[in-house]
Amino acid sequence: MDNAIVATHPHTHETAVAAEHEHVVLPQHRHHFETKEQQREAATFGMWLFLLTEIMFFGGLFFAYLLYRNWYHDAFVVSSNQLSIPLGAANTAILISSGFFMALGVWAAEVQKKGLLVLFLVLTTFFGVAFLGIKAVEYHEKWEKHHIPGAHFDVSEFINPQAYGLKEKPLAPDMAQKTQVFFFLYFAMTGMHAFHMILGIGLLFWLTWRANRGEFSSGYVAPIENFGLYWHFVDIVWLFLFPLLYLINRHPGS
Amino acid sequence: MSATHTIVNLPDQRTATLPKRNYLNNEDGLLSWLFTGDHKRIAILYLISITFFFFIGGAFAGLIRLELLTPQPDLVASDTYNKFFSMHGIIMIFLFLVPSVPATLGNFLIPIMIGAKDLAFPKVNLLSWYLYWIGGLFTMAALVLGGVDTGWTFTTPLSTHYLNTHVVTAATGVFIIGFSSIFTGLNFIVTIHRMRAPGMTWFRMPLFCWSNYAASILMVLGTPVLAITLVLVALERLVGIGVFDPTKGGDPLLFQHLFWFYSHPAVYIMILPGMGVISEVISTFSRKRVFGYTAVAFSSVAIALFGFFVWAHHMFIMGVSNYSALVFSLLTMLVAVPSAIKIFNWAFTLQKGSITFETPMLYAFGFLGLFTIGGMTGVFLGALGMDIHLTETYFIVAHFHFVMVGGMLMAFLAGIHFWWPKMTGRMYPESLSKLAAVTTFIGFNLTFLPQFILGYLGMPRRYHAYPPEFQVLNVLSTAGATVLGVGYMLPLLYLGWSLKYGAIAGNNPWQATGLEWQIQSPPLTENFIETPVVDHEAYDYEWLAHKTAQEVTTVG
């Protein structure tokens, strides 16, 4: 009995090769996992941990946002009024649709419907690209208004809002400077989010290609499931960004 | 009972050979190494890379000590000196200390210790190694292009506004290395959770796995915060955004908070895996189960958790409020509790143990003494009033070198010597390795004890010139560094020699209990022919004696 606990004796090449072959069930099944379930659980657990690191990654930016919002409340209110709620709301709706189709895609993979899976992945990609398109429109508008932090940045609009036809309270020059911190955080947070979407869309193309070859229609769905988790995570980050940047303390002006 | 009282149990050298098939000769050619998914081969790749960077970082340490031999700034100008200590810090922290034990010994041993065939994600593991090198090359590029003089901390506004050096290149390097560390930690956590062999329960796991598990939690949660902080520094420098710039409404203190939120836990990322090594070595060479196994296991997790609540003790003199300083002072001292639990439990393990002084044990004893001094001087620094007197002096330098070099590096060398027979199948010359251990210990103390006094007397760190009255202690320190350098070169030579000429080690030269000692050395690519079923606790020497007796009767 004890000798069976751990194999310590030297053995032949043939037995090892035979042992390796025993474990191979699917082509996607890696030899170092005991069972298919173990492989799937490990992949899912790994993905959740990775998302935990992503939360910490965004966490640094959220921490900066909370700190500065607390300090420079007036500047943050005025700057957030510069963001377009209709565009932000449209983007929220688009991203939720994209997440919805991704969820359907996971379902399609699980019930092994190849055609539906490809369709849903394409729809997910379409809405993802649409989101980025709207984001580009918003960024362009910031560029034209000189609201991109750096040398180009202009605060005169916040010191003398009447001259620009705004109904905001004028800010003292030093507080007006702090709007730059808001816009920096706006670009850092939405930019980091957009970067994650661009990576996601790249992965979607790859997954769609693989799905079209029928790789996920045979019970091997871990890549689709795990990408689904990633995509939902990106959605959720936006669901925090939208209220924090666009909505909080929104008021019609004074 | 022999006079030397040794437990080394080697096979008959006249007939012994290395196993015909093992992970080293399973496939041939450079490409089979560069595209390997085998955790053991990746561990070897890491070992070579980490050693390479260690000696580059060490060369900078040598240059620093050389400059400080005399009070006058006669070797290099101040900005070159700044670049020396910055590169020394960046290379040693990010390219040596953080990955050292986890990426080499952890990679090699964790799957074997828990009875798995590999880590959960072999490709991700290989990717970590490539990321390590890409990051390392960026760091080297920063060095070759003209160096960085921010210190390893990249503190703003110095790094973002007042220096004209390659901060962005170096920060990019560290950012990339950070992902290498995240992926290693992630891989360990998933492997330990999901791939333990039947019967390998959490509380049968070797303490080395526990401590690497705790360090992995820190890597996974802390490193992303460092990554985003470096992104912000790079953006501030490149685009001129003002998140840390007071003239634009930003706050440099925010950088300190974000940076130390990672970098204090990073100290535990460095030291925890080393503590795991020490648990294994001390248990093996006192032939006893680690006293208070559960307490030692949980203290690793406790250190990891407390580690996240102490960062602001780096900022006592930077304008944090008195109340938060008080709270952070208290929290900092709390970390001493789980650390002390470990030290006391190791001491109890040794008590009435059947102790032998093999080379790994010598390094482990070095660790115990030096880490205790390092830890206790840490309590000085956690105390608010003392900290204000000692901050930015050589006392700090001595303190963290006692922890990092006296602790971590000693543990790393203990681990390398302990598992070398398993990794290579060969032994190293014993007298030479003991000489190296003793040389390292003496050299270390001679280097860093004078620095405690220098710091107490008020010599500031990061200066390349100093008042003449500090010269005697600085000369002692530089002499010690020379001895220390010899102590590090020796293992490089005799371990290299042993690869070809060392005695054949056999499966279990130390008569140790871990699963890794029950398989052949060097192991097969697939580690275990059939998945082991574990029915005994870690460090169960009675089980081992029983098993060995049974084998003898079977064979004889």
From TrEMBL, chain A:
It comes from the Bacteria. The keyword Oxidoreductase applies. GO terms for molecular function: cytochrome-c oxidase activity; oxidoreductase activity. InterPro entries: Cyt_c/ubiquinol_Oxase_su3, Cyt_c_oxidase-like_su3, Cyt_c_oxidase_su3-like_sf, Cyt_c_oxidase_su3_a-hlx. It is a multi-pass membrane protein. The keyword Acetylation does not apply. Pfam families: COX3. It is an enzyme of class 1 (oxidoreductase). Its EC number is 1.9.3.1. Residues 45-250 form the Heme-copper oxidase subunit III family profile domain. It is found in: Cell membrane; Membrane. GO terms for cellular component: plasma membrane. GO terms for biological process: aerobic electron transport chain. Belongs to the cytochrome c oxidase subunit 3 family. This is Cytochrome c oxidase subunit 3. It comes from Tunturiibacter lichenicola.
From TrEMBL, chain B:
It is found in: Membrane. One of its GO terms (cellular component) is membrane. PROSITE patterns: COX1 (PS50855), COX1_CUB (PS00077). The chain crosses the membrane at residues 43-64, 84-110, 130-148, 168-192, 213-235, 255-278, 290-311, 323-341, 362-384, 396-420, 432-453, 473-495. Gene3D superfamilies: Cytochrome c oxidase-like, subunit I domain (1.20.210.10). GO terms for biological process: aerobic respiration; electron transport coupled proton transport; respiratory electron transport chain. Residues 33-535 form the Cytochrome oxidase subunit I profile domain. InterPro entries: Cyt_c_oxase-like_su1_dom, Cyt_c_oxase-like_su1_sf, Cyt_C_Oxase_1, Cyt_c_Oxase_su1_BS. It is a multi-pass membrane protein. Pfam families: COX1. It comes from the Bacteria. Keywords: Electron transport, Heme, Iron, Membrane, Metal-binding, Respiratory chain, Transmembrane, Transmembrane helix, Transport. One of its GO terms (molecular function) is cytochrome-c oxidase activity. Belongs to the heme-copper respiratory oxidase family. This is Cbb3-type cytochrome c oxidase subunit I. The lineage of its organism: Bacteria, Pseudomonadati, Acidobacteriota, Terriglobia, Terriglobales.
